[in-house]
Amino acid sequence: MSHVTTTDLYEVTMALSYLKEGMDGTATFSLFVRDLPPDRGFLVSAGLESALDYLTDFRVTRGDAEDFAAVLHRPRRDLEPLVGLAFRGEVRAVPEGRVVLAGEPLMEVTAPLPQAQLVETYLLSQINHQTTVASKAVRCVLAAAGHPVVDFSLRRTHGPQAGMQAARVGAMTGFAGTSNVAAATRWGMHASGTMAHSYIEAFPDEEAAFRAFARAHPGPVTFLVDTYDTPGGVAAAARVLTGLRRGTGCAIRLDSGDLGALARQARAALDAAGLGDVAIIASGGLDEYGIDALVRSGAPVDVYAVGTRVGTSADAPYLDSAYKLVEYDGRPVMKLSSAKATAPGRKQVFRTVGQPDRLALRGESPPAGAEPLLRTVMRDGRRTGPPDDLAAAHARLTGDLATLPEPALRIHNPEPSRPQISHRLSRLTTEVRRRLQAGVHDGSSRDRSSGEPPLTDREEAPRGVHATKNRS
Amino acid sequence: MSHVTTTDLYEVTMALSYLKEGMDGTATFSLFVRDLPPDRGFLVSAGLESALDYLTDFRVTRGDAEDFAAVLHRPRRDLEPLVGLAFRGEVRAVPEGRVVLAGEPLMEVTAPLPQAQLVETYLLSQINHQTTVASKAVRCVLAAAGHPVVDFSLRRTHGPQAGMQAARVGAMTGFAGTSNVAAATRWGMHASGTMAHSYIEAFPDEEAAFRAFARAHPGPVTFLVDTYDTPGGVAAAARVLTGLRRGTGCAIRLDSGDLGALARQARAALDAAGLGDVAIIASGGLDEYGIDALVRSGAPVDVYAVGTRVGTSADAPYLDSAYKLVEYDGRPVMKLSSAKATAPGRKQVFRTVGQPDRLALRGESPPAGAEPLLRTVMRDGRRTGPPDDLAAAHARLTGDLATLPEPALRIHNPEPSRPQISHRLSRLTTEVRRRLQAGVHDGSSRDRSSGEPPLTDREEAPRGVHATKNRS
After folding, report:
1. Which structural domain, as residue segments, surrounds residue B98?
2. Within this chain, do residues B334 and B294 fall inside the same structural domain, yes or no?
3. Cα gap A335→A346, rounded to integer Å
4. How many contacts does A have with B, using Cβ atoms within 8 A?
5. What is the predicted pLDDT for the residue at A337?
6. Inter-chain touch B228–A160, beta carbons under 8 Å
7. What is the domain-level CATH number for residue A233?
8. Considering Cα of A109, then A110, then A111, then A112, what sign does the dihedral take?
9. pTM of this prediction?
């Protein structure tokens, strides 16, 4: 399966038309999330690395063009103009791990229009999914209030590829490990996991199962204690652990029932057996709400394992993301459709500690002390630096979380932080809207004559920009 | 990335212990869904084909074993027993496209215990995800009441792999097409799609955009009419379509606003322009509820395009699926944990038209006229027949839907159909539960001496079964 054909067909039909019309002028598309889901106070930027891998490798082969021709029922020669088309544009993006708010671009792609259009679907699929799951996972880390959180989601994610990304963004938000061996191998994470209920059931009784497990695994062991009756399972685990003397790192896992009450009983039983250093891991349908309730109740749970609800972001399994044309051939553009209007022009987000973010046009000067969130990560279709790593992304997130207002960080009923809109962006939006509503859709010359500096900067125009050949 | 290491670590730690203990007796795991999500009256079986591909290719390489050793911090030699382990078991499964109810196995895997255990995570990831999305997609087809439904979900699914499967299961449930070129190519589907709002915005006005599109695409065209103001967009589309004379197959697409009201206005405008054969496609946040409302209101929508909410099964993005050991070495087993108890023994589902399904033990005789749902699809790790195709799966679904009671088919507040439990399965469940609660976990000899025929059949035991070497 070619990544190039993993696209919505309309990207292809549009690109063909652009090429036919000679419309290879420079376009900028802005990828952002319109509104946050109800229980999110902020987003965590994720998906950029795999998006850049895709753009780096993007090149339409003859085979891809043949596939396009076949589904369009067109002769192969009609698709010939696409063959060899590669991505040679500029990408400005918010690095992974940063806090992002509604309306703030996660990425802006500037390239000749056909290139920038053809990559839309795949970019959205990467950024939307990974940002969705990262923005859920971080809430588990916040709810756990310092207790380790581990990812057990692989069996319920939307296929194995989604499971890989869930493990990766979990690590980005601070998870202590994952059950997913392939992800742990690929990204150097701690791998976590011991036994299922089926393991216990395959033995005559729990104690026999625990002893057999310890025979096979010489290091610290974790015993699953809820297969039949949790107090009995805890007692069996305590008997085996007492004899083992494996030192610190051993644990029991609770996977069903009233996890808080069972954890208290288990803690008392383990302590009474002199096993004060045996940890308690809780799992089974947990997400940030379940973790929060356990933590607030003071339940003696040491480690939280989350799976299904986090790996699928079950309460908000998608974001209202968009990849919108904001400028074409020097002309700011926008969509007016009801409830889906977009702001025109290339943008920048300025972040200042202790103040709301400012969503501005790209050419605006930063407020004093402000940091610009969008960085140039690709020029001429090549990364401007080496691939980012998860530890750096996690460090960025930790920094941003420290400056977010408390209402945005809440587990229940968070209040989303919102950026302020700069005066110049507001004015441009009003002007473009007025122009479009008047039916005067090409007003670039009017913008330039307004007496103020140009509303979008020109200095950083990407190389490879072509003049528009046909402006009917 | 190896498919073998795309697994939860605990499958590996359990398999190592089984091998050390000589526990390679025959195990049967049953993959089923415990309870349906609130707004589902039934499930559509999906994911079997990719699951069988995985099992066919499953073999632990030396590289996989090295990855396992690394994440376990064990010497390579400790993982040596796994090298070369392949799947050589039997799989009985419900073919794709069949209606399945809560508690009914979608698949039963019978193999030497380490093999059957190692494949758990990946099998769940395939069956759970695809059955989840298929069970959502079919409701869109039902709601559309004969109108074509097409898949536009790729940009919002949980990554591209999930998007491929969403397109495939959409076709299985009767979708008329997909926007996903790679999926259309791979599975021979109709590919659908024309233009985005960005396309319109790149031109001076809508009419110029539509004319350019028609220049590039000689066949029937679809124009997106809601970029600025829908009635204006419809008027522009009508002017261009009137001149084009492209025959049937042309359409306009509405993607925002009050789709029902806009469709009525657009229909009237098109008809007044003599364009009665131009179809109306509706998209934008649609799922079965939105489609149902439009259809019931009599809105003149001809084709429904669904995306995000269907491709992610947004209201129920996972199923409560389980892969449970139900028999080991001739001994029926079960789990007793609160709210997660499982029924022991290998099973069969008998379906009779006009009657509830019967969930029974595998050896039971079928009721008169009943059809067994689980078929043997793999023996000795090899498929028993050629890969299934989507058309056959769709035909099976059509047949099953025709026999489902109306309450299960409802869009709003469906009542899930439930299987009856056979007398012998109930009795076995009671006996095993009693035995486990009494602490007598190995009671296989007791089952055999009960005076009735054996509760699970022996005739179809898979080849390659080994005697258990260690029953402590």
Report:
1. 9-133+316-448
2. no
3. 15
4. 356
5. 65
6. no
7. 3.20.20.70
8. positive
9. 0.93
